[in-house]
Specification:
By secondary structure, the chain is mostly beta strands. It contains no helices and 9 strands.
């Protein structure tokens, strides 16, 4: 069976660090072919410190899947109260109302966020451009 790909816009740049950028801020002119309509693409923006370096660098494109269930220690794109970051997800067993978002190289302190107020999308692919 032949796989069909859709031409999907790269929605916006997402900071590796947590600069405040709206997720829907202007569709880019760049497109990427994705297999599923429940996936979306984000380009990682420049940052003075890179919390997921060397895994993810400025210029890389990450593919997120809205149907994939994030698990503990997955890389995720997270959005809450106009904040956006790419981080490692830590699921806190004794606190079902919160997530802990971690940097890979400990350049940023962990962030405790409300599950109810935070959209979490599992990163399923990292396309390296740097």
């Amino acid at each position: 069976m032949e796989t069909k790909y859709m031409k999907t816009p790269i929605l916006t740049e997402i900071p590796a660090l947590g600069e405040n950028l709206p997720l829907n801020e202007g569709v880019q002119k760049n497109f990427i072919a994705l297999e599923n309509s429940h996936q979306f693409a984000l380009r990682v923006s420049l940052a003075t410190e890179e919390g997921l370096y060397p895994i993810i660098r400025a210029g890389d494109i990450i593919i997120c899947d809205t149907k994939a269930k994030p698990e503990d220690r997955d890389i995720v794109a997270a959005r809450w109260h106009k904040n956006e970051v790419i981080r490692l997800l830590s699921i806190i067993p004794n606190n079902p109302d919160k997530y802990l978002l971690l940097s890979y190289n400990n350049t940023e302190p962990p962030r405790l966020v409300s599950r109810e107020e935070t959209a979490i999308y599992k990163v399923v692919l990292i396309k390296k451009f740097s």
